[in-house]
Amino acid sequence: MKAIKSYLLLALLASVFIGCDLFFPYKLEDIPTAPEIQVPEGAFSVARDRYVYFSSGNLQYHAGMDKWRFAPNQYDYVGEGNSNISSSYNGWIDLYGWGTGASPTSQEGRHSFIDWGVNRIGDYEERTWRTLTADEWEYILDERKNASLLQGLARIADINVLILLPDNWKCPSGVTFNSINADGFYQNVYSISKWHLLEDAGAICLPAAGYRNGSWLEDVGCNGFYWSSSEGEWVSTDHAALTLRFGDNFYSAYVGEEERKYHGHSVRLVR
Known about the structure:
This protein is an alpha+beta fold. The protein is about 15% helix and about 25% strand. The chain has helices at about 1-15, 135-145, 190-200, and strands at about 45, 50, 60, 65-70, 90-95, 150-155, 160-165, 190, 205, 210-215, 215-220, 225-230, 240-245, 250-260. It has a four-stranded mixed beta sheet with strand order 8-6-7-9. Strands 4-3-5 form a three-stranded antiparallel beta sheet, with no helix packed on it. A hairpin with a 2-residue loop joins strand 1 (about 45) and strand 2 (about 50). The chain is globular. The relative contact order is 0.17. Residues about 1-25 have low confidence and may be disordered.
């Protein structure tokens, strides 16, 4: 490939400065291109040559025990308990300021990002997990093959969620999935048993856990806000970062809205 590029440059210079006719001995179809990666079952591609697996639930932290875990179920979220956030709170929280991997009870967010995945989480070793970048969230939502068909809003046992399906999705028998969000969360309504059919086939869900502003909670159960590891572009990067959003106010999920770093958002990690 380097030889082809060098030939092209020399030929172009010759045509400009010497008046030679540009001659290229290769057909375009003969030029090798990077092959598409074969995405394994249950994985999500986040670039042409890269894929990830999602954690089994949203990230949760218990200050009293100084312990991290993933939510017991994918659709679980803490809700009102997040209003008690403090270093002495003896309960679980799951809404964090941006980059607070080393200071999960901070209500300020951080100028420099420290990934929550640097910690030991449950039985997983340190640095097993990480946070998606904004570009990776966008690739899952918009750029991978059949991206628009692999996502949809839903209700699981009266809990509002965004469902994302792996690249090689095959819908199991006994359940249906509709990727169109015309009816919002009511587009797909599942019992726990129906959800388990989708989950066992590789589906993941992100609960609409709302967000925290100081100790005030907003949009709990109505909208989802999930951090990326990417800072904002338009607002000062000292203050804003990019998020995944979905829910009653947004319908289709999208990435790119800048949020203040001190807001508490949900975190879903990948490996």
